[in-house]
Amino acid sequence: xxxxxxxxxxxxxxxxxxxxxxxxxxxxxxxxxxxxxxxxxxxxxxxxxxxxxxxxxxxxxxxxxxxxxxxxxxxxxxxxxxxxxxxxxxxxxxxxxxxxxxxxxxxxxxxxxxxxxxxxxxxxxxxxxxxxxxxxxxxxxxxxxxxxxxxxxxxxxxxxxxxxxxxxxxxxxxxxxxxxxxxxxxxxxxxxxxxxxxxxxxxxxxxxxxxxxxxxxxxxxxxxxxxxxxxxxxxxxxxxxxxxxxxxxxxxxxxxxxxxxxxxxxxxxxxxxxxxxxxxxxxxxxxxxxxxxxxxxxxxxxxxxxxxxxxxxxxxxxxxxxxxxxxxxxxxxxxxxxxxxxxxxxxxxxxxxxxxxxxxxxxxxxxxxxxxxxxxxxxxxxxxxxxxxxxxxxxxxxxxxxxxxxxxxxxxxxxxxxxxxxxxxxxxxxxxxxxxxxxx
Length: 440
Ligand code: SF4
Ligand code: SF4
Description:
This protein is an alpha/beta fold and about 450 residues long. It contains 15 helices and 16 strands.
């Protein structure tokens, strides 16, 4: 289907064109921008649902948030809402609700596992049998750590589970041995390499290859073809399988990663940050993070980080951090130039830090010497983008490319209202980013 014909896609009701799909204009009268805004809304709702799921895993929920999600989904039914302006506002409402959902989850994590502390994490295997945990569920990891205690089995995190090492009640386990691999898409290569059991806890789980399918398990919402699913956090079978597998040999650990720069950890440096900014030793703060993806354009993150002048610091989060977190960027008078705030749901840490940093520096939030360069891959990143738009954050650099559902009309709004930019190349973007400091 050519681009000209494919202005929208909707096949949710019986009227759908030719019994196949409305692709130019809805038979119901829905225009392409309405259709695409409905998609935007649904993708945002999907993202929020992931945060709510994890909060509920720990016994936390918010009926008010749930009711807004209900209303948002309802508005996308056939013949309900044809108003572009209102649908865009609904998208922003999802951004608002997402902030509440992320705060709820952060509260659940902190009250259950303590607030993360800066922690150095090993990135190589230690001698012995092991289990690798991928995904995002701290609850699943915690249950596995309890059940493997005293068995001699080592537990490793993969990808977005790295920030788990910063939580006091998780890092207390000696057998939480380290973090293996990088972002989610290295799973096939990584899991084939280590003869360990694998537990996939959430989204960003790849369909396994034969090499490790019989030693992989899913839990929570994940289901993978040919892979045994475990319910109720009872990991007896996962542990039994790990005990049957050969030992892994000790690896040389060259790289260690820092994680666990929570809100309190950053604010404990408030006096220093203020001094460094006032003395001109920090001229700009960069937030570089988001969802990583295997696209070549994502090399942008590393190239940009390497080009940043030494009087800048970087806050990072989500699995996009793996593009840069092995870099030794040094410190500014002892303050690390690269600080990992955590998982994608820890975007709330960054969001809640903005007014605190502004207050510290006697500025308005919009005046902060801050540049956000955010990547997106799946729908949690969509809900975070909507949260930032709801907060009226401007000048976000989006990587690696524009979402496919954004048409000319929606892009025009995003550019005019939020000055949203898509990354181009690190040299020219950096010039603009540093220039915007002078005009702010
Ligand atoms: S809701 Fe409208 S656009 Fe969607 S399939 Fe039905 S008629 Fe087509
Ligand atoms: S940050 Fe995004 S892409 Fe990365 S593992 Fe989490 S949800 Fe997946």
